[in-house]
Specification:
- The chain has a two-stranded antiparallel ribbon with strand order 1-2.
- The chain is mostly helical.
- Helix 2 packs across helix 4.
- Helix content is about 55%, strand content about 5%.
Length: about 120
């Protein structure tokens, strides 16, 4: 099972910020297997998590000071606001689940493709 990495604008996602109860049958509609669906969602959540971390690191790197002095720590208001913004975003699992439900996740199962070729 392979997920294709898709650059997503997670800032504009309609994913809920809090946990939502979902119907299991909706999640296994395409795969016919809830465990496979959860595995796909988990892999996509990992991809989103890495993407968000990279974006945050790039933005915070602009504020990095390279002084060796530990006594001179300044609070940067913009840095704090950026951190708060990222804290308020939906969690990667919620984003991935929303993408999966909306059929925005590309996935394939090579074992199924080989089985259909043999028939």
């Amino acid at each position: 099972m392979i997920n294709k990495i898709i650059k997503m604008d997670y800032k504009k996602s309609k994913a809920p910020v809090n946990t939502v109860t979902r119907n299991i049958m909706d999640l296994c509609r395409d795969t016919d297997n809830i465990y496979e669906s959860v595995a796909i969602i988990a892999k996509r959540a990992n991809q989103i998590s890495v993407q968000i971390k990279e974006d945050l690191s790039k933005k915070l790197a602009e504020f990095a000071s390279y002084n060796d002095s530990l006594e001179e720590v300044f609070e940067n208001r913009e840095q704090i606001e950026i951190s708060r913004y990222y804290e308020k975003l939906p969690k990667p699992t919620l984003l991935a689940t929303q993408e999966f439900v909306e059929d925005k996740v590309y996935w394939r199962d090579p074992s199924r493709e080989n089985a259909s070729d043999e028939i």
